[in-house]
Amino acid sequence: MTADQIAAASGNSAWMLMSASLVLLMTPALALFYGGMSRQKSVLNMMMMSFGSLGVVTIVYVLWGWSMSYGTQTIGGIFANPFEFFGLKDSIVDAEGNYVEGLAGYPNIIDIGFQLTFAVISTALISGALAERVKFSTWLVFSGAWATLVYFPLAHMVWGGGLLSHFENGFAAWIFGATDGEANVSPIDFAGGTVVHISAGTAALVLAFIVGKRRTFGKSFARPHNLPMVMLGAALLWFGWFGFNGGSAFGANGVAGLAWLNTTVATAAAMLGWLLMEKIRDGHATSLGAASGVVAGLVAITPAAGSLTPLTSIILGAIGGVLACLGVGLKYRFGFDDSLDVVGVHLVAGLWGTIGVGLFAADAGLLTGGGADGFKLFVVQVVIALVAMIFAGVITAVIAYILKATMGWRIDDEKEMQGIDTHEHGESAYDTTGPEIR
Known about the structure:
mainly alpha
């Protein structure tokens, strides 16, 4: 390597280590966000579900998750051989004791850490649909099973060389019946619209129906118990998301800078779009709406952060904020208890962001000069969104029904009414009994 190459690799390594740390922060940030939205008697359980996923998915990722996601021995294009790199065998150092170089030029172990954090946050997102009513032990088992059977295969299919990867003369050609050279269209999922948000949002929808409603759903309004905590969680998620999107450039380069700026402006626009919709619909622009709009904007720009301009990112974000604000009302219309709006925010905004790439990708989208290939890109984006939904929905349902028949999902009605924190964890978030008299 030349001196310039060594310097570039060193800078990229530093950026990717920082990005991995930022994404890792997102799971505790999600715990704050969800915890603040919960009721006082269930805040600890809600936060523990995020921390539980952090523990379980981290371990299974090292054991077989990396191998299933990015192994070279693909199985039907759906997932890779989980035993090829089991326990990160042959993934860290080579036979001479040198660190294995990753595709982006920095050590492979850095990319493993970065990708691990994506698997963790994707699984933890689902927990918001299950507030106040599920066994912690069942959630932990579900976390490992869902990451293994849904997330790792999707990561392989979209990012790891599987069925949905590299559509040039492949999947796009199959869609349009083209021969070599006629379907030069590749899918765009920069940082996880399909793999992360559509999959998690779909899983949340499926679980909301299978697990069932809280006993008080539709009978009383469950207000967030700590809105400052919600806003702090949203702020930390925004901060961590720069690693999520900026790190997906896999280097300290111009694409990372573009992703940073697009993430910022889209999120700001989504927050304003959500607040405007709230004001028109309800007469108030709320702090909860601001925090939720921030997350909706972050979700919407995730698949598009490296492909849009800042101007089209504003448009994408603003529409995403409005759609997500409307989307949270779906649970009342269709009667499913998505407790903390995972479906409205992550599924709706994730779908919009993934499809919106086909409309607004710079010089390639249907509305931005892409021409015939722009139409093809739009169709491809719709198809991968639907494939991700169907795959995640079916596998999640299978896992959920097996756990329902074996471990069971629900805590007792009495425990749910008294508060899940006390009965599942033996503690409460706030001491309201006063000092103990001895």
